[in-house]
């Protein structure tokens, strides 16, 4: 069952690349704080010794996905997106599914790994979609003030 967002006054526009990057920077600070808390807990559980390795990296990866998935699926906005008046939604204006959040998250990693090409793609796309917008069948909209 897909939940629709409440109607807003005015037409929803596509945000600029700079606004998207600003929200991403804001969210990056939050993700780093989550990583620090996880690292603190892991060091405590490891008798004060440094923690590394594939299990710890996997935990950090899953925590990062959980952060984005929770906010995207439940609210349509991360905290950075709220600050910059952005929302992720399906093309027809509904909340995205967990499956779409996973596709969006994984494709955003690829977009970033290709030196940001997946993000800059929106400058040449007719509907201003990034790779992760296109593959997950979602869109970012700019909410009115």
Describe what is shown at a glance:
This is RDD family protein. The chain is mainly α and 145 residues long.
Key traits:
mainly alpha; two-stranded antiparallel sheet; 6 helices; 145 residues
Describe this structure in words.
This protein is mainly alpha-helical and 145 residues long. It has one domain (17-142). The chain is built from six helices and two strands. The protein has a two-stranded antiparallel sheet with strand order 1-2. The protein is elongated. Residues 15-136 form the RDD domain. It is a multi-pass membrane protein. This is RDD family protein.
**Segments where pLDDT lies below 50 for 5+ residues?**
none
Helix content: 55-70%
Q: From the helix content, strand content and strand pairing, which structural class follows?
A: mainly alpha
Our measurement of the CA-to-CA distance between the termini, rounded to an integer number of angstroms, reads 29 Å
Order of strands in the sheet with the most strands?
Answer: 1-2
How many alpha or pi helices? Answer: 6
Number of strands: 2
Cα radius of gyration in angstroms: 17 Å
Q: How much beta, percentage-wise?
A: 5-15%
In round numbers, the mean pLDDT is: 93
Tally of distinct domains: 1
Q: Sum up the overall morphology in one term.
A: elongated
């Amino acid at each position: 069952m897909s939940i629709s967002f409440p109607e807003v006054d005015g037409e929803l526009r596509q945000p600029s690349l700079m606004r998207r990057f600003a929200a991403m920077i804001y969210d990056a600070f939050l993700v780093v704080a989550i990583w620090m808390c996880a690292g603190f807990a892991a060091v405590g559980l490891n008798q004060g010794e440094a923690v590394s390795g594939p299990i710890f990296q996997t935990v950090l990866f899953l925590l990062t996905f959980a952060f984005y998935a929770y906010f995207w699926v439940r609210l349509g906005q991360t905290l950075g997106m709220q600050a910059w008046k952005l929302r992720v939604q399906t093309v027809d204006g509904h909340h995205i599914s967990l499956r779409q959040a996973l596709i969006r998250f994984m494709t955003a990693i690829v977009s970033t790994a290709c030196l940001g090409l997946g993000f800059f793609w929106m400058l040449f796309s007719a509907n201003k979609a990034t790779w992760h917008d296109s593959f997950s069948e979602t869109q970012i909209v700019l909410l009115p003030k």
